[in-house]
Structures are given as structure tokens and as C-alpha cells.
Amino acid sequence: MRAIVYEGSGGPEVVKLREVPKPVATGDLLLVKVHASALNRADILQRQGIYKVPEGQSPIPGVEIAGTVEDWGENVKGFVRGQRVFGVVEGGAYADYCLLDQGMANPIPESFGFREAAATAESFLTANETLFALGGLQPGYKVLVHAGASSIGTTMVQMIKHIGATAYCTVGSQKKAEALREIGADEAILYKEQDFAHEVMRLTRGEGVELVMDFVGGAYLERNLSLLKHEGCLVVVGLLDGMSAGLDLLRLVQRRLQIKGSSLRLRPMNEKRQVNAHFRQRWMEVLSRGQLRPVIHAEYPLEQFSVAQAEMEANRNIGKIVLSHG
């Protein structure tokens, strides 16, 4: 089968489309013929040699797929050949065939094509887990979402508005700000031109927010904490700018603030299945009714993987970048 592989570490020059052996489904695994996959920031870090693939997982990049069931292992029950499924995988998405744990496999809603399903897989799982399980999001909350134009950011904004909370977000351009307002953001802050902390305090009349969803890391830590109400929560979803930072522990203690972190890929499979189950219980019916949909920036054929990655690295995307596998 065809697969994207990284031959060494570095820039686009290490990306190759090669013929590799087709995986074999055993145990709890489904073999899925991939019709669409979706890009993720971790794929770039893996290519650059910054991110190490967890032991036992596929070195082929990509963690989000949509396709049809081809075969399965001896422990799998309840699936049929040709069934349309989507889900998060432990690597291997950028290939003609991929292995998907049966507990991570979700039926594709009838109103969705493969591209929409691939764009939903990881972003909806992560948004649901971080907003609700970790952040305790409730109707009436005020939430700040950094990187609002990312695939997870656009998903978070929709979820926040769907339950009746207020969504503020940071974005890098006026075009992105307009797009976020169109999908429901109450305010989009241009972080290159405005101090987001000042703007949030102005918008909330000095009260701050109950919840901050951060993809940036150390560079934003102090300002994020300064925005939180008493007993507010900061959830760190990504580390794009700073793996460490100083911390005002007195503020943390006095205001009973919470800081939580999230990573899906490093968790054991039984926990991943629980995360997926929570997503299905809360959002599959909503998705089937068309009340929420993934935001798709662009679609490229698998052969143009490097072009698609360059679009993401340039931070031009609003929502998900999808790959079609032919």
C-alpha cells in the first residue's frame, strides 16, 4: 500500500510517498481502507524530530481517519465489511490502510462524507474532553479559547455556544476573526495587535472568565491566570510557545485556581476508549442532526501532503486541513 513516511528529520524534503506492507488486523483492531485523513500539528513536530512516536505505535504519521471496514481481529464484534467508520488512531493515518481500535471506531453520520468525518475525529474528542471533563464547562460560563481558528478552536467555539456559554477567542488576522464570529464567537481578539488579557477584562467588565483553553504554553501562562475568576480553570492543550514558565503561587492559592493538562495520544487505550465514548454520548446525535459541523479549510490529495503541511505551518488554515486518499 501507499504511505507517507519521514525519511529522517527536517523539512518537507524528508517527506516521501512509499510502498509499504499493508497492516494486519489482530485482537481488538479493525483494518480500515482510508478514504480521508486530517492534518495535526503533532505531525509537523514528528517530521522535525521534536516529537517521538510512543513505543508500539505506527511510525507512519497521522492520527485521524475516515474510511470503510475491510477486516478485523479475533476479538472484534459488531462490525461488517464496507461499514463507514471514523476515529482516532495510534499513527498510520496517511496510508491506504490503517488499524483502528474497535473502541475508537465511530459510525459516520449519514449526512457526513468521509472528509467531514475525518475532520471531526480528533478535534471533537479533544474539545469535548478538555472543555467538559477537565474544564467543567457549564451554561453561562465565559471562556477564552486561544488559537481560535485552529480545528480544535473552531470546534470549541461551536460547543461553547451550543450549550449557552460565552466564547471569546484569540486569532492572528482579521480574516480569521470574521470567520470565528460567523460560527458564533462572541468576540475574536487580534493577539498581534491587542493585549488579549486587557481585552478580555474589558469585555467582562473586569470580572474575567471561568475557563481558559490554551494551546500556547509558557508564553501565556501569567496572563492566562490573571484572567481567571475565583476557582477558575486553565486547561493547557498545547505547547506552541514555551515548555516552561514562572508561576505566581500566591495568586494560585489565594484564588483557588486550577491548572490542568491534556494529551490523548500518550494515554492507555482503555482511557482513550472512555474519551471516545464520552464524545459519542454527547455529540453524535448533535452531529447527525447537523447542529454542529467541523470547519474544513481545504482538501488536498494524499500525493500533495507536503503542500498541505506547508499551509498548516504558515498558519493560514481556518479549521481542518483534510487529505483525500483517492
Describe the SSE topology.
Layout: E1 2-6, E2 15-19, E3 29-38, H1 41-48, E4 64-72, E5 84-88, E6 97-101, E7 106-107, H2 114-134, E8 142-145, H3 151-162, E9 166-171, H4 174-182, E10 187-190, H5 196-203, E11 209-214, H6 221-227, E12 228-236, H7 249-254, E13 258-261, H8 269-288, E14 296-301, H9 305-313, E15 320-324
Parallel strand pairs: 8-9, 8-11, 9-10, 11-12, 12-13, 14-15
Antiparallel strand pairs: 1-2, 3-4, 3-6, 3-15, 4-5, 5-7
Helix pairs in contact: 2-3, 2-8, 5-6
Report on this structure.
The protein has 326 residues and is α/β, with parallel strands linked by helices. It has two domains: 179 residues, Quinone Oxidoreductase, Chain A, domain 1 (Alpha-Beta Complex), CATH 3.90.180; 123 residues, NAD(P)-binding Rossmann-like Domain (Rossmann fold, 3-Layer(aba) Sandwich). Helix content is 31%, strand content 26%. It contains nine helices and 15 strands. The strands form three sheets. Strands 3, 4, 5, 6, 7, 14 and 15 form a seven-stranded mixed beta sheet that branches. A hairpin with an 8-residue loop joins strand 1 and strand 2. Helix 2 packs across helix 3, helix 2 crosses helix 8 and helix 5 packs parallel to helix 6. The longest helix is centred in the middle third of the chain and has 21 residues. The radius of gyration is 20 Å and the shape is globular. The two termini are 13 Å apart. The mean pLDDT is 95. GO terms for molecular function: NADPH binding; oxidoreductase activity, acting on NAD(P)H. Keywords: NADP, Oxidoreductase. It comes from Archangium gephyra. This is Quinone oxidoreductase.
